[in-house]
């Protein structure tokens, strides 16, 4: 009884809404997830070779970074609108837009991560007879992983949030529900969809953080060493 | 290519630029929103970020607010504010949303800029007997300037982008050209509006890059320092005097 009342009263928080529209919410969440996931995955696949090209062939670095920065400056609504005539009304509009946004962050971070690999580590690997491919995948990439993962987390969280704007072409995942709710002034729908969106972003961020911890067990040791050093220094200062 | 020529024809039609739904009026609204909201958010976030950076406190807040700002969809906040009781007050929901999303980059960059000032320089300025205020105004602020301006530039681009989205729940600005185009299934207008928005965003970005280069209080020194960095990286003023 009280449940239907909250629908009639157009309350912000309404359990009855979540119960009666659970199918709609699940579908929107799934669409949100696959659009975000596909975009970031494609972005990563494209960013990796671009970063390698920019590193190997110096003159390309400026234009690659400059072009991706220009893309990043274009507001999302304009980006989707500009892609509309290319793909028509389809999910490709949103996915392509998000891929272009994630490229900026990913190329920059992969490049920064690879640049930060100590020359000594490279020399040592070469001395051990590592070829260029084994050097890249066995030494450089693992050492660049924290920077790459940091970029991946930023790109993913941004993509979760920007997917909502895809509602303009009908492929915005939870954004579709926000858009509908906006037009029908349906408060519970807007608030519920927005909240799920934020939860998705936080969950994706934590998931990637966990993946990073698993992939780079050595950094945990280093953080401890750093903390231990800091404590030692502080102790010394206190002694003085 | 049809879309590009369609958009060009749309833009070349004088009638589309005049009147209440015309480009000039929407551009005026967009610029007005951008300037007002950027000014409000700078007035709130910069003093706070500089003070926190100067005191070295509240770092967790200053840095995490940027991560939080990224996780919250701008579109959702705009719609939530319009549906809230605030929605009755004309442009206020839009202005509040724009300010909310401009604050994180300003605060984070101001804080990080202040914290990244060389500690040795700060120590020597204190040793010279500078008060906290003098230290902030004469040492920390000039050295942190580039990062502070990066924050202002990011915030300005963010405001332009968010102001575009404000058209979805019925706010003003260039985004209205895009939404009106969608409502009329007029792809030419959608693309023309999107082009105008993209050009505006790029111009704002470029203008702030130029502004930060021209107004950098250490612009001559930074250039000189790049050529001859002294051992501690101290600006020449403190080494020679």
From TrEMBL, chain A:
It is a multi-pass membrane protein. Keywords: Membrane, Transmembrane, Transmembrane helix, Transport. It is found in: Cell membrane; Membrane. PROSITE patterns: ABC_TM1. It holds the Pfam family BPD_transp_1. Belongs to the binding-protein-dependent transport system permease family. This is ABC transporter permease. It comes from Streptantibioticus ferralitis.
UniProtKB/TrEMBL annotation, chain B:
The keyword Transport applies. Its main location: membrane. It is a multi-pass membrane protein. It is found in: Cell membrane; Membrane. Residues 221-241 are annotated as: Disordered. SUPFAM superfamilies: MetI-like. Residues 27-208 form the ABC transmembrane type-1 domain. Belongs to the binding-protein-dependent transport system permease family. This is ABC transporter permease subunit.
